[in-house]
Amino acid sequence: MKKRVLIVEDNQSFRIFIKESLKDDFEIDEVKSVSEFDDIFFRYKYSLIILDLKLPDGSGVEVLKKIRSLDSEVKVVILTAYGDIPLAIECIKKGADDFWQKPIDYDILKKKVKNILRDTSFKDIEQEYVGVSKNSIEVREDIKKCSSTDVNVIITGPVGSGKTLVSELIHRNSNRNEKNFVEIDFASLNKNLIESDLFGVSKGAFTGALVSRDGFLKRSDGGTVVLKNLNEVDLSVQGKILKFLDTKSFYPVGSNREERVDSRIISVFSEEPENLVEKGFLRRDLLFRLNVYRIKILPLRERREDIPILANFLVGRLEKKLSLQKRKDFNSFVEKILGLEFLGNVKELENFLESYLLEKDFNIEIYNRKGGLKDLIKEKTEEVEKDEILKTLRMVNWNRMKAAKILKISYRSLLEKIKEYKIEK
Question: GO molecular function: any one (predicted)?
Fold first, then answer.
């Protein structure tokens, strides 16, 4: 039996376009107003409702509220014009599954419908993103929801909390899973080459550009691109990324030939992006375009109930990696570590467990203090780092750009450390 789709759209030509595009694969009903929706909604069990935001006798937002109060399972997609994107984003927060911007290409429409109605068990999400805390349960549900849509996603969480894993799970469970998963960590790239690394470069664009080269975006076509540490990118280049988000097109460095790319965008931040906007490191308009769906991963110390199940999961993985067996004292060992801070989050817990498996005389007391192992070395590390920054600044006569290059950190990171350590000339 074919699944049933309801189109709620007052524009007749666009309504017919959607119907003609989908009629071979689905049973289609179409209405052009809120009153007609009310008449037909209770007659059938719908798999998908395609809902325009603006209707002649009411608002699509009110229709969405009505749908969600009566049916939590039906997929709902909002149709929007460019100027209505803020309202469409609000609809996502109110229970819509996706929004599609008009006009929409025939092939893209069919692909989006197929994706949102795709049957999946999400077994790998349950098996790989483990945890019993409220936050872990919410993150798993967020992954499932994002896997069925193409909306832009922001993932926030402290270092080592699992942001990359969440990105990978979204990609693997989406209809883009057979295409490339491309991670771009801007903090690790040469600042002067970020634009060419991202957009590609045309032969002869600058000295050393002996051949044309595709950038990260081109390589991600059809798949997923993860933007990490966007705050490390110059604001001018952020403007070009913003344009790409709006048009799905860009020009390689030194080229007048436009490239079009269909990539799903996931942005990853270790700090709340709103704070980065206030500091002047991230464009507000770029954040607005990226921030359609937000996934927030809490620090491990705020979800300690996850530690036992995480420890069992990680030790199982480490046993295979190291060809070792779980030690007999493991359960009592886990009870002892529940009070540790694990400032490095899941990654620190994994390293901690690896040391426990490898070291026969592992001494938990070394870690049994606020901050864990990191707290033992943090004070000394900060002292050495401050001295090194100060020495380098003096050596280059306080030229902060030169100092950043010598220290092999970004200019912005240097400015933050100067402020953090209260370094003065």
Answer: sequence-specific DNA binding
The tokens 């004070």 sit on which residue? 379
At 8 the three-state DSSP class reads strand
3-class DSSP assignment, residue 15: helix
User: What angle in degrees, to the nearest 10, is found between the helix axes of 400-407 and 411-420?
Assistant: 100
Domain with CATH 3.40.50.2300 in the chain: 4-116
Q: What is the per-residue pLDDT across 59-118, written as a single tens digit (0 to 9) for each?
A: 889 999 999 988 888 999 998 876 677 888 888 888 898 888 888 888 888 888 888 887
Tell me if residue 181 falls in helix, strand or coil.
Answer: strand
Q: Which CATH code fits 303-368?
A: 1.10.8
CATH of 123-296 among 3.90.550.10, 3.40.50.150, 3.40.980.10, 3.40.50.300: 3.40.50.300
Phi, psi of 49 (to 5 degrees): -120, 120
The structure's pTM equals 0.69
From the options 1.10.10.60, 3.40.50.720, 1.10.630.10, 3.40.50.150, give the CATH code of 377-420: 1.10.10.60
Where b means 16+ CB within 10 Å and e means fewer, 270-287 reads ebebeebbeeebbbeebb
Neighbour tally for 21: CB within 10 Å: 18
| Residue range 238-285, pLDDT digits in tens | 999 999 999 999 999 888 889 999 999 999 999 999 999 999 999 999
CATH of 4-116, one of 3.30.1330.10, 3.40.50.2300, 3.40.190.170, 3.40.710.10: 3.40.50.2300
Rounded CA gap, 274 and 51, in Å?
Answer: 31
Query: What's CA 343's distance to the chain center, in Å?
Result: 22
DSSP string, 345-364: HHHHHHHHHHHHHH-TT--G
Amino acid at 63: V
∠357-318-332 over CA atoms, to 5°?
45
Check residues 372 and 212 and name the one with the higher pLDDT: 212
CA distance 200 to 75: 38
φ, ψ (nearest 5 deg) of residue 296: -115, 120
Segment (H or E) for 58: strand 58-59
Task: Give tens-digit pLDDT for 94-103.
Answer: 889 888 888 8
